[in-house]
Amino acid sequence: MSPLASGPQGPTTLRPLLTTVLDALTAGAATRDGPLPSGGPTEVAARLREALGAPFPDHGDEDALRTLVQAVAAGAADPADPLCTAHLHCPPLAVATAADLAASVLNPSLDSWDQAPAASELEALVTKALAAEVYPEVHAEADRTRTDSEALVTTGGTESNQLALLLAREHHGHTQLVRAENAHHSLRRATWLLGLPEPVTVPAPAGTMDPAALGEALTALPGPLLVAATAGTTDAGLIDPLPDIAALCETHGARLHIDAAYGGGLLFSDRHRPKLDGLARAHTVTLDLHKLGWQPVAAGLLAVRDRHDLAPLGHHADYLNADDDTEAGLPDLLGRSLRTTRRPDILKIAVTLKTLGRTGLGALVDRVCEQAAEFAELIHRHPRFELHDRPTISTVLFRPADTTDDTVAAVRRTLLTEGRAVLGRARLDDRLWLKATLLNPHTGADDLAALLKLVEGHTPR
Ligand SMILES: *Cc1c(COP(=O)(O)O)cnc(C)c1O
Predict the structure, then answer these.
(1) Span from the CA of 395 to the centroid of ligand 1 (angstroms)
(2) I need a surface site. Which of 56, 145, 251, 330 has the fewest CB within 10 A?
(3) Whether residue 299 is found in the same domain as residue 188
């Protein structure tokens, strides 16, 4: 019989399996000499197919755990490698990953109290604390007024943005989304999913929303309107002028959502938090702790300024939240998500917040922002590179000087195919840039110099 992870024997059963996993991770990583496997998609797929064999054999294979963990580790893009800097793809903290193991073992499901008695209370407390990071003033007044902020746990920015649009629609009816051309693609998808009109696009000439153009749009458009601003664009890490946008929304009676999936992490840093001034004036805010929060996926949040806004998510299913159970004091959890069965992603988040504290987490944020500034300076001083701009958060866009877009694209793909470096790409000012999103606090100046040298070496003269 296959042993179980939980129950009194669970830990004893798991211990040797964990050793197997850790050994396989080490062995797999050792077969790579860079941040990702060499050979490109065809070779990587062939090696994986070879390791997997029959995906669902008639008779089990006891070695499958070792074989498959090793194969996936061998073929991984390792975000902890300093040269893996393409995306908002962070290296997870060890302590958060260990907590995530406990979540898998205990397997609480956050759709009813009787499946997650303590985890549901942990979620209530920690989401409240995170909401207070976004909405400090509102929180301070919580005892005196009925306004009270709250946050929901989501699978990431995409789900958070969807929920924000759904809440706007439920409050105002057929809402028109207004967003800048720099906004995340998930917002447009959410309008499609929710049957809302095609979004109106405001120009972002310097990479951030143009407030004058927003003002014109808000004057011209019939309501109800939802403005979506971005704090930390995916391509360049830029922050829209939040106070100006918030003021315009207030003047025109438009609802405001701020997508801070990336930039929200700046809240943890005393040095960088002022860049988010105006955030608390939004009705809803997207945060993503699997970006600037060093969590294993998934760790999204949607903060809402007034928890009463969440009322439309309330839902009844007699087996999960019968009225008499709720009246008898069993917490009703169904209104906290559109999902039913739901992992306790809050556990790893809670462990991280408490282990590192504000200063610890803030130091990580400061560190990656500092690295980005140093990297930009290195590029700026290098005669063979062009820097797009000084970073606002931890994204640096650059390209080899005097080359074509095709060369920029080819350099990136060659580095990927060789398994030497993972760089992203972004089109800004109608030109293609290489993108380094620095999210590894352990990356050093020498790593960044090596990355630049690698790109230089792969650029045809
Ligand atoms: C990453 C990102 C998203 C989407 O978040 P996921 O966690 O990938 O779903 C949304 N908005 C912005 C600005 C992002 O950077």
Answers:
(1) 15
(2) 56
(3) yes
CA of 158 to the centre of ligand 1 (A): 6
pTM of this prediction exceeds 0.90:
yes
For residues 315 and 410, state if they share a domain.
no
**Beta strand 424-428 with 431-437: parallel, antiparallel or unpaired?**
antiparallel
Ligand 1 pocket: which of 184, 257, 295, 301 to mutate (most atoms within 8 A of CB): 184
Nearest ligand 1 atom to the CA of 186 is 10
Ligand 1 atom 15, closest CA: 234
Residue 305 alpha carbon to ligand 1 centre in Å: 20
The pLDDT score that the predictor gives to residue 11 is: 96
Residue 92 domain-assigned (yes or no): no
| Confidence bin at 3 (pLDDT 50/70/90) | very high
**How far is it, in rounded angstroms, from Cα 414 to Cα 85?**
15
* Residue length of the chain: 461
Residues 274 and 288 in one domain: yes
Q: Domain span at residue 451? A: 358-457
H/E stretch holding 27:
helix 10-30
Residues 144 and 269 reside in one and the same domain: yes
Residues 286 and 315 in one domain: yes
What's 324's domain CATH number? 3.40.640.10
Say if residue 426 is preceded by a cis peptide, omega within 30 of 0.
no
Query: pLDDT, tens digit, for every residue of 378-419?
Result: 999 999 999 999 999 999 999 999 999 999 999 999 999 999
Q: How far is the CA of 403 from the centre of ligand 1 (A)?
A: 31
